[in-house]
Amino acid sequence: MYYLLGGTLFVLPLFGFAYDEKTTHPALTQEIVKFFNLKSKDLKISDEDTEYIIQGSIDEDAGARWMYHFYDPVYNRGLSLVRQWRSSKDWGQNTLAQAKYDVGFEAKSLGGTLGPLFGSKTDYSWERGIYEYAWGNKKWGLLSLGHILHLIEDATVPDHSRNDPHPPILDWGSPYENWTKKFDRQTINPGEIADEKLIILNSLDDYFNKSASYSNNYFFSKDTIFSKEYISPTVIEKGIEKLSDGRNYSFGYGEDSKGNKFRLIQIKESPWQDPEYSLKDPDLKILSDYWSLLSKQAVLNGAGVVKLFFDEVEKEKQTRALYNKNRSWLGKQIDKFKRDSFKTANVLYGITPKLEDLEEKVTTEVSPPKGGETSTTIIETPSVLEPPKVKPAEVSPPTVTAVETSKQTPPPAETKQPPLSPTQPKPSANTSSFLPIAGAGGGRKDDEPPSPPHIITEPSQDNLIFATTTITFRGRAERKTTVINSFSANTVKVADDENWSLTLGPLPQGTTTIDFSAKDEAGNKSQSKSRTVFIDTTGPQISLTINECGQSLSSSSCLTPKTTLNLEWSSTDPELSHFLLECEANGSACQNFNISQTNATTTTYSVPGDNTIYTFKARAVDIRGNVSPTETKTVEIISRPLIINEIAWMGTSATRSSDEWLEIHNTTDKTINLANWVLRSETDQTPYIQLSGSIGAKSFLILERTDDNTISDITAHQTYTGALENSGEVVELLYASTTIDKTPEISTCGGWCAGVAGGQYLTMERYEPLSSGTDASNWNSWGGFLANGKNADNAAINGTPGKRNSINYLITKDGSTLAQNKTLKKSGGPYLVTTDYIVNSGITLTIDPGVVVKFYNGASALIINGTLKAEGTSTDKIVFTSFKDDSYGGDMNQDAAATTPQYGDWGTIKIAGSGSFDQTLVRYGGVKDSSSNFWANIRSSAGSVVIKNSTIEEAGVYGLWFNNASASIQSSTIKNNTHDNQASGIVVGGGSLTEIKNSVVENNLSAGILLTNSTTTTISDSLVQNHQSSASSRGLSLVSSSPSIKNTTFKNNTVAIEADGSSSVSNGGGIIFEGNTTNTVPANLIP
């Protein structure tokens, strides 16, 4: 661009950027996608795809592309100064104009190499984007969409619709564009658009016209205020406003087609000179008004373009129009190549071959601007980006003067010879019309092309359809020649039997025509034989629906209590062959789902398991074997998503017997809408409660009779009327007339199956949420612990309203005996032991990783007469601890920090049968009871115990105690048992066969290890340390015992090893003493 400054002519770049490419364009594009997702019912653009679109909108300002970002809808022109550039409307839709910026693409065309129309690295045009997205390169398609949105956004900038180049130097820049740079993806607010509708237009041209016409007709740019070129906009009224500096300013106001009034210009009037107009006022109110309206138009029109893009993609998949256009352009290039080749042959060799059906060269026409203006030259590419010209091959033998003839002087006419047939003899050397080339040895050079390939045997005919992108072509050709092709640089030497085979790929989707020629050793190339193939590797589309998901209990997923599912699937592909279906549950194939390959479109499936997530997958296969993307639907089946969890049918006290309440529990991980749910008495329909609102995941909902004061410190979800009879009723929970849950029949228990009316007024609690409510064994009265809530008199309620039921913490409902095998799940924890809980002989209690088991008080213990398997993992340990220990399993006793755990809080884990502990933590047990039944965290008499990778600590007396037991302690830590004069880490007595290996025994008061009458204990690869609490502290104390010790360190102990006169040590080697006050007593204990 040229400007005259101070008498000097400066040549400046145009700097025609509109919105800032680093802030405003990404922000507007982000809002366009958000609005599209808000309004689109069938298609949502993912976060990842959104970033591709935004990146495209940023990249459109790269290089010199910005020169094509102007579109004046009044004169139908691009940027027009001394010369004229393409309009953004043309640029965005002109594949070849954008492609020529790719030097490699241009070089291929100029040099004769054939390539597809959609092959340029700089082409992000509208059709290119649709083509790429439809046929596999979705990223390129989304980037192209971003480039187009950039142009639509620029069309809403007045400078770009009113031919105002606004270079950002001196005071020539655009006030509007400079001001809008502050809006980025975090700060943008395009106005109130949530209630707007998508703007639906027929074509991309329509969106350019609508966007540019709006900014041109209703808004000024800095250099076009009341320009003679434009009759709009006009000032509809004037007004005075006081701004923040306390001064009055005059504004001219405009109005758009929607009736939106806004500040159009600031007017400075003076009686001595013409008015001055400006787009900037001290408070920037004009620019703010411009932005609020123009940014909104950018978003609304941009979202419409997004919809149009995806509509065109679907149309392309059906019509393959751009596939055919891509091929048609390639065909034209092939024809152009042939024509140029024959012209060259005519000049060089004096032959005139026949060319028929040659297509016209594609040209680009530019319409002159409207209004009778003189047309100006269209600049296709700025000089700094012009691709290098590729020179044609120079053929100039020094003796062939005809080649050097000037273009203005035609060569003399020559007699043309008919082409030679394959059987016609070659002319002798003296009849040659060519002179010998110096240094070539004389005679005629070999310039006769070989015969074209005789036949292409595979594929056997044109237009066969293949479901692969790699095809092997076979045929016959003249031996000792090389078969070349127009698709790739791959070649093949023809065999002596004249057969050849050549594999080509990957071939593009749609129609491809490949020319095959033979080339001899002298470089002569035959005429070509072609073969046209059609590639179709695109799978059909498929839809899958599960009818029951239409009534999902959750708005965020498919959640249903129904155990019979109706599946439907379909495809509109006209070449459909069959469907493939799968069903998975918990990572395995579903039971009794007896359909995999089918032509059916529906099935009914009765799920075999409750409380299970089922995943259904469907694919469509066409007649060529192309498989669709997998359509997946996930269904969560929970037959009792809501349950009746607790009933205070007896009231809350003797004086509050009418204060009844009921509790509902959501067993799922989803919020459930309570519309269509009813809780009622099946017995007499009273109460009848139509539920409303919603219930959160895993939460509890309280319904109080009469008023909200029944439970004074908990707000009721709803209140109801009608009493429950103390003699018993059946309460049921229904969803849309289907019974989901109900309490046992009156006859089962002769009334209510649990709860106490009178005395303590104990509520009726459910034990297992997912087990049947009609099972009488699934109910019990409040357990006497973990009470919650106050009644209307502020007295404690003997129940757990709004909380997990007390009996649900117990290992079994009665809390005392396990008579059948059971596994404790992490999801069901924490668990609570309130008394001596006995695992019967022959019964196994399995504890899963991550489970926390708490013990209520000093009278609570686990008595294992059968088998205990407590096997955690390094990341999910199993914990046995005190009821007061909030570090694991939360604040179960609900007292915050009022109480803290300590040694001897609970009894013991007594192993009379067998017990295995791996990755466990056992702490705060071993109460020192008067009958000496407990004393240790873990104890065993005549049982079998294996402890691995575990920590045993903070016992009342002993960490571990074994008598006549078989015990193995491996890779474990026994520590901090310091709270009694007899406190020790490990105590072994009698005939116990004990192994201590790879373990640490530390900081125990009396002894780290105490062996009494033990002759079979082995200690190896271990560390015994820090037993210094008193003068009598010992690392290892031996009474009538003779252990074997190997590779073990005794460190920082008062006495490392002390033995009485009847004890001894078998030294296996590697015993180390370090930092002990005394190593051994007696001194010569270690042989």
Q: What percent of the residues sit in helical stretches (DSSP H or I)?
A: 10-25%
- The SS-based structural class is alpha/beta
Spatial extent as radius of gyration:
45 Å
**Percent of residues in beta strands:** 25-35%
Total helical segments: 13
This entry's quaternary arrangement is: single chain
Distance between the termini: 103 Å
Low-confidence segments, given as residue ranges, are 1-17, 342-444
CATH superfamily of the domain at 14-235 and 282-319: P1 Nuclease
Instruction: Return the average pLDDT rounded to an integer.
Output: 86
CATH topology of the domain at 14-235 and 282-319: P1 Nuclease
Sum up the structure in keywords.
PLipase_C/P1_nuclease_dom_sf; P1 Nuclease; hydrolase activity, acting on ester bonds; extended; PbH1; Immunoglobulin-like; ten-stranded parallel sheet; Right-handed parallel beta-helix repeat-containing protein; alpha/beta; Pectin_lyase_fold/virulence
How would you portray this structure in words?
Residues 409-425 have a biased composition (Pro residues). GO terms for molecular function: hydrolase activity, acting on ester bonds. Residues 641-737 form the LTD domain. InterPro entries: Beta_helix, Ig-like_fold, Lamin_tail_dom, Lamin_tail_dom_sf, PbH1, Pectin_lyas_fold, Pectin_lyase_fold/virulence, PLipase_C/P1_nuclease_dom_sf. This protein is an alpha/beta fold. Among the domains are: 14-235 and 282-319, P1 Nuclease (Orthogonal Bundle); 455-535, Immunoglobulins (Immunoglobulin-like, Sandwich); 543-637, Immunoglobulin-like (Sandwich), CATH 2.60.40; 640-769, Sandwich (Immunoglobulin-like); 981-1087, no CATH class. It has 13 helices and 68 strands. Strands 38-41-44-47-50-53-56-59-62-65-68 form an eleven-stranded parallel beta sheet, with no helix packed on it. A ten-stranded parallel beta sheet has the order 39-42-45-48-51-54-57-60-63-66, with no helix packed on it. α2 crosses α7 (138-155) and α7 packs antiparallel against α11 (285-319). The longest helix is centred in the first third of the chain and has 35 residues, at 285-319. The model is unreliable at 1-17 and 342-444 (pLDDT under 50).
